Amino acid sequence: MSDGAVARALVLQAPRNLVIREYALPDIGADDALVRVEACGLCGTDHEQYTGELSGGFAFVPGHETVGTIEVIGPQAAARWGVSAGDRVAVEVFQSCRQCANCLSGEYRRCVRHGLADMYGFIPVDRAPGLWGGYAEYQYLAPDSMVLPVAGDLSPDVATLFNPLGAGIRWGVTVPGTKPGDVVAVLGPGIRGLCAAAAAKEAGAGFVLVTGVGPRDGERLALASQFGADLAIDVAVEDPVAALTQHTGGLADVVLDVTAKAPSAFAQAVALARPAGTVVVAGTRGFGSGAPGFSPDVVVVKELRVLGALGVDSTAYRAALDLLVTGRYPFDSLPSRCARLEDAEDLLATMAGERDGLPPVHGVLTP
Ligand SMILES: [Zn+2]
Ligand SMILES: [Zn+2]
């Protein structure tokens, strides 16, 4: 890097207080790197950070779904990560020491050295060099970063789907152990729900139901059939249990609840599961929101497995990037909206439901 070069970054100083600041590009040593951000995917976490629902250590540069090109990389980092300058990579949100028991077992979300404290898109700017997130022209990659190579012909904005599709694969297939022929119900038709439907179909699911609620989900439900869904219904007008039974003659082997701001979905998930079936609850939905209509006795009587899923891992991310490259699902034609740094605030507020317009299925920041 030439001396004196700077990167523009969006800093969230407090809820709804997003400003552009400039940071000096750091000197890169033997074991770290700098990535030029091409696209950063936005998810529910992003607009919850923006509104303050997810309170964080302000101020920080958000952005945890980064895809970009390695600008500078030290020789040790290149050897350890298996990438070189000029390579397009996806940056994982978690860092891994690659040595502690949790990292060695693959549970690097619980890395003893880093854990949840060192997630990209959450680290305060007062820790040098400040460029710890994807809402910036450049993102700093510390020595324990985890990066994934992105195939050259995948566009950066589609490549940011490594994150939601990785989640769909882990939450909809790996965690519940979805098998060929299984009946799978996905509650919530957002980007994660559509990705989970595609992942379940890829795993050989015999029937995939996707549910949403109300007119705001109409466009997403209409898209679901292109992403592996055999049936997509609006639970505001149709009973999902009756609909699933009518189409499959029974209930679901696997139910995945990826709804947002829909506390009553959990009771529906439990109702949709067959006896001895599996229910996965993934992504947080606002602590303390409860689960109206849920009766624990139903879990007992049906002998359900109820599992929580928080993050994603390299295995699922790599499978996601491989699936994106095949082009088997029209991820490149998902209704998406790209914003520059200057326009990010309007996009985040729209995604948070604070503007008149409908939120895009996929929001992307392209610094
Ligand atoms: Zn995210
Ligand atoms: Zn570790």
From TrEMBL:
Q: Which PROSITE patterns match?
A: ADH_ZINC
Q: Which cofactor does it need?
A: Zn(2+)
Q: Where is the Alcohol dehydrogenase-like N-terminal domain?
A: 29-149
Q: Which domain of life is it from?
A: Bacteria
Protein's UniProt keywords contain NADP: no
Similarity section: Belongs to the zinc-containing alcohol dehydrogenase family.
Q: What is this protein called?
A: Putative alcohol dehydrogenase adh
Q: Which organism is it from?
A: Mycobacterium simulans
